[in-house]
Amino acid sequence: MKFTDIFIRRPVLAVSISLLIIILGLQAISKLAVREYPKMTTTVITVTTAYPGADANLIQAFVTSKIEEAVAQADNVDYMSSSSRPSSSSITVKMKLNTDPNAALADVLAKVNSVRSELPSGIEDPTVTSSTGGSGIMYISFRSNKLDASQVTDYIQRVVKPQFFTVEGVASVDIFGASEYALRIWLDPQKMAAQNLSATQVMSALSSNNVQTAAGNDNGFYVVYKNKVDTTTKSVDELSKLIVYSNGDKLVRLRDIADIELNKSSDAARAVANGADSVVLAVNPTSSANPLTVAEKILPLYESIKNNLPDAIQTDILYDRTVAINNSIEEVVKTIIEATIIVLVVITMFIGSFRAILIPVITIPISLIGVIMMLQTLDFSINLMTLLALILAIGLVVDDAIVVLENVDRHIKLGETPFRAAIIGTREIAVPVISMTIALIAVYSPMALMGGITGTLFKEFALTLAGAVFISGIVALTLSPMMTSKLLKGHDKPSKLEERVNRTLTKVNNAYAYILDLVMVNRKCMLVFAAAIFATLPVLFNSLSSELTPTEDKGAFLAIGSAPSNVNVDYVQAAMAPYQKILTDTDEVQFAMTISGVPSTNQSLNVVTLKDWKDRSRSQAQVLAELNTKAKAIPEVSVSGFAFPEIETGEQGPPIGFVISTSKGYEDLANVAGKFLEAMQKSGKFVYSSLDLKFDTAQMHIKIDREKAGTYGITMKQISATLGSFLSAATVERVDIDGRAYKIISQVKREDRLSPQSWDNYYVSAANGTSVPLSSLVSMTLEPQPSSLPRFSQLNSAVISAVPMPGSSIGDAIQWLKDSSKELLPQGYNYDFKGEARQLVQEGNALAVTFVLAVVIIFLVLAIQFESIRDPMVIMISVPLAISGALLALNTPGAIQGLLGMLGHVTGISYFNELSGKISGEGSTLNIYSQVGLITLVGLITKHGILMCEVAKEEQLNHGKNRIEAITEAAKVRLRPILMTTAAMIAGLVPLLYATGAGAVSRFSMGIVIVSGLAVGTLFTLFVLPVIYSYVASEHKPLPEFDENVKPIEGEINH
């Protein structure tokens, strides 16, 4: 190809093209956003409805099912789950990935409003909120030695919380650990009975004497007076003087029948941070916000809040998700620098001339900077994926330049002048360079077309790599040839280093030539060897466990504690105290907080932040394993810690949620799910598993003697109102105190509602005004009931949450669950997944399809280049060879672990078992990173074949050699560039193998696959490919020529 000549003849043109690429890239750097992962919108919409005092069945029948039916009609719903518990209904709608959060919220809101009129009358309006569904980006604790939790909460509500909403990208701020103030009216049933007062009368007096008045204006001749009328009781004192009943001189005030105080409105959750009672603030970003920029804006705001706090309140940031993100981005940038240096050293060792090194080295900055311009054009960001692509690119972009340099150098050694050598050498190599570039871009193109999480993540990765390779191709055909003509010298006197390098490489070349000749004589043995490798591939594949992403050391983790369903928050808080102590006694722990009563009454949520990676010797996985073992010693509560999900997919809780759903009743479902849970616990595959549906809560079933009630003239409405005002803690009215609305809540004191016997003191007013004891009209039975009634996609459901055993992956666990459900689930029962497991099931074999597509595309590209179907088949032979090397490396940790475990078992020496436990198989699974590594491998390994087959084709066409002679010659000529490009690529990836800190495991996962695959694949390719070529390749003949000088034959056809 002669088009490259122009750049050698016109050096300024070649330099200008490269400068243009650099200038465009540099202007883009400052404009790109920095994120953790490519932009991914996960939206979870929650509909919560409060119905104070109502039981779970009532809520499910009249509230949850009605709203569910309406919401199910919304667009883009992935799944919907709901939970009906006493006094509240909650429906969670998980939208599909990258759904517009605002449109989804509007859609769900419209559906909820459409059934509002069908809901019961005593209900509060449903609230609809949208979030990312993740675990919040920041947890901040506030504590005080002088103020109680409600006072701290009141301050946060009024002063602190509103300031967070000034930060763009903050969706919601949750306050855990205390509740707002309310005016509490503690009724005394006996005093009420003594005054013959019914609950209805008291409630009616409260409602009628607390109303908001909008009294308009008085308009005088020239002046307008604005009216403000006090028609509410604004203080405890005013409320206590309120007259509930008057008859002549007899006045009954509220204080005569009740105690009134300003106190917390409910006692549902409590927080402890680092051993001290606290109030915890959780900041959640909006679905489309970038957590890094949100956190960056919150920090200065937090500092100003901290400086303005009253002396009595102290504050700490307990957890900041962006610390790990920033750390992993810094680590990757460091890796890029390390990789560049290592690649330079390796190239120097192969070339020996410092002038010559400049040629491939200059392509690294040009390609890396140039590709940033492409990121800007495609609206990508600088994130872990694009940075990972840049690390891979370092080894790739020097390849084309090395091939050009090596070929020109060869011609100079044959005696050409540098200028002539540059033109001849570049012409020869232009086609292979173009086809290598196209082949690599072809490998990555299918990744850019994928959907789902994998597609969102790897589109930016694939296109960044493809862009870098494309730019390096341009540089290799424009700047590199020009530089070779100017920088390389005629070989009169090589330097000492060059001589040494040449001597060494000549020895390597001679040794290779000798072995290759032997191999070509015994070709059948090589075929048997290749066949054996192909046969092991399925075995190696099947022995690997799969997961979506490997578990990273994020420097923080979650733990959920579950107590029996019928206990209250006091029990949970007391039971969690030993766990708090274990946490504070662990050296690696920096902050630990426990929120009792969240996510449900009998559970506690714990967020634990570890010290910086540099300040601790153990990894997060080791600390977690130790804590989980110690937690088993706490009898009252079962606690299990697990890592934060690697990719925020809007799922919360443990990594595996196994959902069993059916249209049958909850009793049957609980039995089936209970048996399944037992099987899971016996299987030894799960370190923790718990079921959310158990009949273990005591429910008091009250039957009313309607006959008797009717004789007294007592209606059901009266009984309902009495019980509601005594027990439900519903809001009677709202009053304004200092410009804020506070609730008025009525209830009997705790000592009057401790047990069913308390009902002896409750009275109802009969038709004649006398008080009748309520206990004489009712009979009670205790019956077991689940603490909540869960549903999934409108069917009754039970969810088993589980954490797989250390060393066992989510993929293995899913496989076990799928197999077991065939045996254990009766007809009429279905299963589904939640959590990280759901993502893995949904993504499934998306990458496998992409892999096949990549192989097919490369094959077609090569077929076009070689004008042959056989040659590409020869080149593609190296793909399975390389993959066998990669799979071997992934299987090694597992195999060593198994071997040591077996030795320990046979010999009884515990040392082997300890050693087996220390081998970390982290990252050596089939996850999205290792799979992308395999796809990348396809492109890299085919380059060797392209180089060899291109020369062999030329040898056949130009020198009339047969296949064996042609490929043997080609292999010897191309050995040096193959070794150089492989060494450069492997050297560039070495830093990934010893990476530490945040995000190290995923980098290791990709690195080990490419390094081992390339090393083994190259070795095999050098010997197996020539053998296969000699059997399979095309016999190349020149393409038929068309002679323009011969005129077409003219005349008529005689019929």
Rg (CA only): 37 Å
Number of helices: 31
- State the total count of DSSP E strands: 30
How much of the sequence lies in strands comes to 15-25%
Taken from the alpha-carbon principal axes, the silhouette is elongated
The overall pLDDT average reads 88
Class computed from helices, strands and strand pairing: alpha+beta
Poorly predicted tracts of residues: none
Distance between the termini: 48 Å
Helix-residue proportion: 40-55%
Main beta sheet strand tally, sense and closure: 9 strands, antiparallel
How would you describe this protein?
It is a single chain. The protein is an alpha+beta fold and 1055 residues long. The protein is 53% helix and 18% strand. It has 31 helices and 30 strands. The strands form 7 sheets. Strands 1, 2, 3, 4, 20, 21, 28, 29 and 30 form a 9-stranded antiparallel β-sheet that branches. Strands 5, 6, 13, 14, 15, 16, 17, 18 and 19 form a 9-stranded antiparallel β-sheet that branches. Strand 2 and strand 3 (88-95) form a beta hairpin. Helix 11 runs parallel beside helix 13, helix 14 (418-448) runs antiparallel to helix 29 (928-959) and helix 20 packs across helix 23. The chain starts with a helix and ends in a 23-residue tail after the last helix. The relative contact order is 0.11. The model has no long low-confidence stretch (mean pLDDT 88).
